[in-house]
Specification:
- By secondary structure, the chain is mainly α.
- It contains four helices and three strands; from the N terminus they run αβααβαβ.
- The protein has a three-stranded antiparallel beta sheet.
- The longest helix is centred in the middle third of the chain and has 21 residues.
- It is globular.
- The two termini are 24 Å apart.
- The model has no long low-confidence stretch (mean pLDDT 85).
């Protein structure tokens, strides 16, 4: 299953809007990876038929976010500095400051 550039754009735009609204305070406008996945699935849930497809979309969305961090360098992971691996499995993500949303 391929995630379109439209969905990538949706995720990045949502993150930018979130960062703008939440500049002040702790976390500096960063979203947890899982929050982002959940938000995206809510946006497309009317197009999802059944639990299997929901699980598949969740996995694909997580892989897209991983790619945007590790390959495309569009997103940055912010480590919480925790020793707990469960916390590190759900890092904060922010859009790279040099990335231009088209």
């Amino acid at each position: 299953a391929v995630v379109s550039t439209q969905s990538t754009g949706m995720l990045i735009l949502h993150m930018r809007e979130f960062e703008e609204k939440n500049k002040e305070g702790s976390g500096a406008g960063a979203l947890k990876k899982q929050q982002l996945v959940d938000w995206y699935l809510q946006q497309i849930e009317q197009d999802i038929e059944g639990e299997q497809e929901m699980i598949a979309k969740k996995i694909v969305t997580e892989k897209v976010l991983d790619r945007l961090v590790k390959v495309d360098s569009v997103l940055l992971e912010i480590e919480g500095g925790s020793e707990d691996p469960a916390v590190d499995a759900d890092p904060y993500l922010v859009v790279h400051p040099n990335y231009i949303v088209e």
